[in-house]
Please model this.
Amino acid sequence: MATKTLIGPFTQLLPMSGLPVKGALKDDVIAVIDQGGILISEGQILTIAPFKDLLPEADEVHQLDEEVVGTPGFVDAHTHICFGGSRARDYALRNSGKTYLEIAKSGGGIWDTVVKTREATAANLSQGVIMRANEHLQLGVTTLEVKSGYGLSVEEELKMLRAIKTANAKTVVDLIPTCLAAHIPPKDQPGSPEQYLQQLSETLLPQIKAEKLSNRIDAFVEESAFSQKEIEPYFKTASAMRFDITVHADQFSAGGSAIAVKYNAISADHLEASSSKEIERLAQSSTIATALPGASLGLGCGFTPARKLLDAGAALAIASDHNPGSAPMGNLLAQASILGAFQKLSNAEVLAGITFRAAAALGLKDRGTLAKGNKADIIAFPTADYREITYHQGQLQPCAVWKNGIKVL
Model:
């Protein structure tokens, strides 16, 4: 018979369960269990209740002797942590007044990372993913989406996705791979953007399915990347092949979110340029709006209109966009807390955005809340008041992390 293990008591335990995926949340909706306990077995949660009430059911007890707040493990639903090289030069140029597009035209930007990533071996890429994933784990992230997109050819994109798959077997963090081969049109391939996308549809996507490298397809819909017209046939093919679709949308100009909604994308990410029209369209859809405050901080531009999206009834996830160019920080909690300060988000909205709403943006129903049957992915913070978590804007870091019920930090 499987062993039942009890973890606790948590001074405050925040299950984050029973809350809606869409719309605004007041802090009074957060259920707080004082002196709470979590009963787990075989990596899954059995029961959440006051610690003393669960003691008779436990075969083993992991006693917590300090004051701690427990939350679900964080989910970072948008990162680019598989890459080679650095873009410190780009950052310095931006801070000196050059724009993102000017830097890209002068040889920097995404293409600079493409060159460095192509030069890297699969083993080096995999090791980099493991290192960065473990850094995220130290900050409480137990599930991490990882994109390709710096290969921009069939073989180089496959190299990246294989490196991510290898890394996933060597870190306790769950890595969710996404194919972003439609990041920008490759500079070194002849033909039009449409021809490149057709090549991906005919050659890359079937191979991804054959090797089970990913079930998610992303594309950057923007003036400097792919137009709405160019990307539609690619999305039609991906949909027919039963890939989940996500979109880099409305970062510098509006339009990408309309395509996201049209193709029933699981999420539309960025949205800094979204107007009231785009916000309303997203609110009326099932597509989750994912804010990426790391990109706003890295580029020195405005934030995603998170408050307006929530008030309109949209679902809002928050992700780090950790990448070597526009979002090198990679600290999800710090970024979410800063976004909350600028956009006037409640603690409930911030925490929902990096737990169960972020899980929904990845199509994952078995995490993001501390509920019966879910993965026992748990974080403990060294405080007696959960409000301290966002108050310290990322400086209050977890003192313990459990992944599938096993203490890993």
Summary: The first strand starts at residue 5 and ends at 13. The radius of gyration is 21 Å.
